[in-house]
Design a protein that fits this description.
Blueprint (H helix, E strand, L loop, with lengths): L2 H23 L25 E2 L8 E4 L5 E7 L2 E6 L11 E3 L2 E3 L6 E3 L5 E3 L8 E2 L1 E4 L2 E4 L2
Antiparallel strand pairs: 1-11, 2-3, 3-4, 4-9, 5-6, 6-7, 7-8, 10-11
Length: 143
């Protein structure tokens, strides 16, 4: 392979890598499409249940990844909410839910477990809400 061809291959690879890194950083536009709710919904999930009600503590939650990244919360007894588990600041996966806050340890952002709104910067956009449905103790994400 000639030196010119090697340089072209390396330059192309560097460009793809740079584009991938920049895309991963993203911007702060998580937005909300208001497609979620609590309580029973209609529609069918893509698969089996992603959690059980008993696994979601009041004031806390659980991060599940079976469906591509969801955090389920129970901000008050009997009310369940679901949001994307991807922080709207720089797309890190949120790490835990405690005291009705969804926490992202990457840069310290927090979100409300009740409505997904950003409660501590650097994130300013809310987590996107997801729709839930229930069958007994099983929790499903609807499509």
């Amino acid at each position: 392979m000639s030196e010119t061809t090697r340089r072209a291959v390396l330059a192309g690879a560097a460009g793809v890598t740079a584009a991938s890194v920049l895309a991963a950083c993203g911007d702060d536009k998580g937005g909300s499409d208001s497609t979620a709710g609590s309580g029973s919904g209609s529609g069918s999930g893509a698969g089996g249940p992603i959690a059980k009600k008993a696994d979601i503590p009041v004031g806390g939650g659980k991060i599940v990844s079976d469906d591509g990244g969801t955090v389920i919360t129970q901000p008050e007894s009997g009310t369940y909410k679901a949001f994307t588990a991807i922080c709207t600041h720089q797309q890190c996966v949120v790490t835990d839910v405690a005291n009705n806050n969804i926490n992202c340890k990457c840069h310290g952002s927090t979100f409300s477990a009740a409505d997904g709104s950003a409660t501590n910067p650097p994130a300013t956009s809310p987590l996107r809400e997801k729709k839930l449905r229930f069958e007994g103790d099983d929790i499903y994400i609807t499509t």
